[in-house]
Design a protein that fits this description.
The structure is a homodimer.
Chain A: H1 11-14, H2 20-28, E1 34-35, H3 68-80, E2 90-93, H4 95-107, E3 113-118, H5 122-130, E4 134-141, E5 144-145, H6 147-156, E6 161-164, H7 178-191, E7 194-198, E8 223-228, E9 240-244, H8 249-260, H9 265-276, H10 278-306, E10 312-313, E11 321-325, H11 336-341, E12 344-345, E13 347-348, E14 362-366, H12 372-388
Parallel strand pairs in A: 1-12, 3-4, 3-6, 6-7, 7-8
Antiparallel strand pairs in A: 2-9, 4-5, 8-9, 10-11, 11-14, 13-14
Amino acid sequence: MTQSDLPHFSRRISRLTSSLIRELLALTQQPGIISFAGGLPAEALMPPLSLEGVPPALRQYGTTDGEPGLREALSARLNAQGLACPAENVLITSGSQQGIDMVAKVFIDEGTPVLLEKPAYLAALQVYGLYGAAMQGVAVHPDGIDMDSLRAVCAAQRPVFLYINPSFQNPTGYSYSDARRRELAAFLDEQNIVLIEDNPYGELSYDAPQPAPVSAYLKSAPWVYLGSFSKIAVPAWRVGYLAADPRLAPVFRKIKQGTDLHTNRPGQWWCEQFLRDEAGLAAHLDRLRDYYRGQRDAMEAALNEHMADVAEWSAPQGGLFFWVRVHAVEDTRALLDEALARQVAYLPGEAFYPPGSGVCNAIRLSFSGVSRESLNEGVARLGALFREHRR
Amino acid sequence: MTQSDLPHFSRRISRLTSSLIRELLALTQQPGIISFAGGLPAEALMPPLSLEGVPPALRQYGTTDGEPGLREALSARLNAQGLACPAENVLITSGSQQGIDMVAKVFIDEGTPVLLEKPAYLAALQVYGLYGAAMQGVAVHPDGIDMDSLRAVCAAQRPVFLYINPSFQNPTGYSYSDARRRELAAFLDEQNIVLIEDNPYGELSYDAPQPAPVSAYLKSAPWVYLGSFSKIAVPAWRVGYLAADPRLAPVFRKIKQGTDLHTNRPGQWWCEQFLRDEAGLAAHLDRLRDYYRGQRDAMEAALNEHMADVAEWSAPQGGLFFWVRVHAVEDTRALLDEALARQVAYLPGEAFYPPGSGVCNAIRLSFSGVSRESLNEGVARLGALFREHRR
């Protein structure tokens, strides 16, 4: 079969972006490389897998919404964070990635205007692009989204939704201040723009209690809140959740059914046990935060030691990443090969912008899975590399 | 917020069909009702859930394609059935429902012409409709799809794909003969139409070895084969698979990533153990087939006893359903309320046709979850109901 004999694909397929990131990640997984490129949580700290005591009835097909006990436990946690959401408006998803995909299904036709942060979570960029959204980016700073840019963009064309990672964003680690959260919520209320708040890292807050959801400050604008167990428990279960405004939850429930009927029930049961053991959960989260805080501090020290003259950054107060702007160079993607030759890897910032956005001098560094010793050595190698290529 | 303040939804949402089936199923689940309406496999025969021995490394994020061992085991099973498919072209899905959704993503734009059987698997109808396909149906008979109708429909407008359940179809229980499979494959080759072969019931073959996949007979047309563990193992795991032509597999792999990153790994590991224990698997499948064969025979006897004068059917050689055409009446949906008042339930045939197809005198009866005694009593009540309403 020649190329001309290939089947007729949907227009969506012509928008599939090349898997730059997967190619990069494959490169960075060679043995011996000190890799700051991946974003995986630390496996050693994950709780054990076990299904001891699972009811046999959980072998049967389940409901599209998810297990009632898990939805109730999540509703209680959201309420405690200030986001009033009854269990009936909590939908269990197959990871929060499925929530992102369902948001696209519910809101995006070809050409639908949507807003994301600049830079943005890569997989959201890819999915919204696949569905044909007209994406615009709004700059984010260490204290949150740039309100002036947001107002200007919305004045030019009203977007259907704004998708954000307001707490310890991937890739920047930036987290919106409480004042910015309130200001943003008031603006969204005024404009009646849907908020899509994706919050996988909120629990990984190292210096203060986790911030209140932006959704909690909304008075009238519709909202969708995406949550995950992947960064605090076991990503392999692929259990996440979508909490939504009562006006939106029923639509997502109907969309979920055709997508995969329901999320796996053993995983939901496991996550429910994980949440129900309150003392165990608190101790586990403390251990996680202690470990990551130490890693964060070690990376900050290494950056201060080895890269202060070539780059700038804002140390994150949570999450897994440093976003480092290497002012000494123009294009960090062009230097990745040489970094790999020196047995150190990062993710070029370019990956977190829509395709065609041009070169970028930032890098994302993950401090999750690298030993303390390697961490310092890796940052030293990067500092030397950027210094040698100083423009 | 008034209706006019509701957010802008995608056009997809306007195509969400009413959840007729869910409403019906809710009705039929009242206590005391003898229900032939559901399609759930028998829970008592499902193997136990256990994760004893699962490697701790399976807590981490996994690959989009799925676990290599499971993909190899599935490839070996497909090869044994005559469908040559290397493990690299087997993609693990979150249930075969996700395969149906991904097929829509890959092929369907608004107005894309696609073919299904008439009647068709309900959830496929809903998903392809949601994506905006222009769906046409081709009649199926107890020995398979009507080739004359298929030729006529394809002559009028070439479809992008043909979606079929050729083995013990849901809802009819019909299974294509080997001759029909070959004839269909030759026609698809000639027309270069993509075959989407959905085969959740193939292993539940009660009177003969399971039929060879239609895909195995193709020489040049592209194909996608959807498989499931839900009817032979544990549906709650939501583990299925999509095997595809080497020209299509890479496209599905890219689509899967944005959909939910990957399928849950504990479930994949469990399914791999389930397949690897060959003696245990063979004994388990024998038990399943013995049980369902007995149920099938009991329903056939009950139909012969109580409904021979009002209806006709073709006893299925596998799967979970009888498709009963009640020639005594015109509209089985209109009679459902009265059936429920008599404490017996069925699914009206109308549910398995596109919305707006008009009334239907068929019913789908599942013999999976009803005790022998109730089975005879329920069919007797239905016979009496239809006899009283004979037109």
